[in-house]
Amino acid sequence: MKKKNILLILKLLKKEVGFHKPVVGFENPFKVLISTVLSQRTRDENTEKASKALFKKFSNSKTLAKAKTKEIESLIKPAGFYRVKAKTIKKIAIDLIERFNGKVPSSLEQLVSLKGVGRKTANCVLVYSFHIPAIPVDVHVHRISNRIGLVKTKTPEESETELMKVFPKSKWIELNDLMVKFGQNKCFPRNPKCETCLLNKECDFGREKLNKGKTI
Question: What pTM was estimated for this model as a whole?
Answer without folding.
Answer: 0.89
